[in-house]
Structures are given as C-alpha cells and as structure tokens.
Design goal:
The chain is mainly beta. The protein has one domain: Aromatic compound dioxygenase (Protocatechuate 3,4-Dioxygenase, subunit A). The protein contains one helix and eight strands; from the N terminus they run αββββββββ. The longest helix has 12 residues.
Length: 149
C-alpha cells in the first residue's frame, strides 16, 4: 500500500497527466454542454485577456500527447457577455501541450464561472467540455483526454 501511494505521489511530482495510473492509462475527459453560444471560426490566438491562465495537454487514453489538436475556447467577457473578443482557436504543440490566457472567468445568470472547450484531432472523437475554475486561483491545468474514433 505504501509503495502504491509513493508511486502515485512520484507520478504527480513528475508531471504525470491527471487521470493517469501506473498502467499508463488516462481516463477520458468528462464531456459537458456545448452551450448555446458556440460559434465556429474563432481566430487562431492563445490570449484573449489577462489574469487567468489555463494550460494542459491533449492526450490519448494511453497518456500520449496529441500534436496539432484543434482546441477552441470561449468565455464571457468581464461584463458577463459572450463576444468575439473572448473566443480563440489554438493548436497543441508536438507534445500535446497548450496554454490559453484570458480574463478571470466569471459567473452569469446563475451559472458558475467557466470556460467552454471543444477539441478535435484526426482519429479521435470530438470532445466538448467546460472548465470550472476554483475560487481565487489565477491558473489551472486541464488535460484533455480524447477517445479514439
């Protein structure tokens, strides 16, 4: 039992992806609502504001990075409204990593603060999910684990 705990802590310290196990398996990211405000064709950019950084990796269920995955992100502006200035498309690096900077997400109309995420990669199912920031934090890691098509 102590050895298993030690292996888990070592994996976290070395940056193993969230959801990974000793058997090199990553649990697929939980799907969430696309929402009514999705618009295709967001400009390619990785920054739509400042104050909050979301980073992570697009991964296979075997915890391997997925290069050139198309990641679309959108969130409300500081006034709680969706606009084109807060939509972005980016592509993951060779190791599957990405970094997105925005204003700190805020809640609106009874919804908690969130960032919408849509990920597509050749040979994988499209993933639609949302990231819910923890209170007071200025950054987070969101690994996006995709299932094979």
């Amino acid at each position: 039992m102590k050895a298993l705990l030690l292996c888990g802590l070592l994996a976290l310290a070395l940056g193993a992806p969230a959801g990974s196990t000793g058997a090199s398996r990553c649990a697929p990211t939980r799907a969430d609502q696309l929402g009514p405000f999705y618009e295709p064709g967001a400009p390619v950019r990785s920054k739509v504001g400042s104050g909050y950084v979301l980073r992570g990796r697009a991964l296979t269920t075997n915890c391997r990075g997925i290069p050139r995955a198309r990641v679309e992100l959108w969130l409300v502006n500081p006034q709680g409204e969706y606009d084109d200035a807060h939509r972005a498309t980016l592509f993951t690096r060779r190791d599957g990593s990405y970094r997105f900077e925005s204003n700190r997400p805020i809640g609106y109309s009874g919804r908690p603060p969130h960032v919408h995420v849509r990920v597509r990669a050749r040979g994988f199912r499209t993933l639609v999910t949302q990231h819910y920031p923890r209170g007071g934090r200025t950054s987070a890691v969101l690994n996006l684990v995709l299932r094979r098509a």
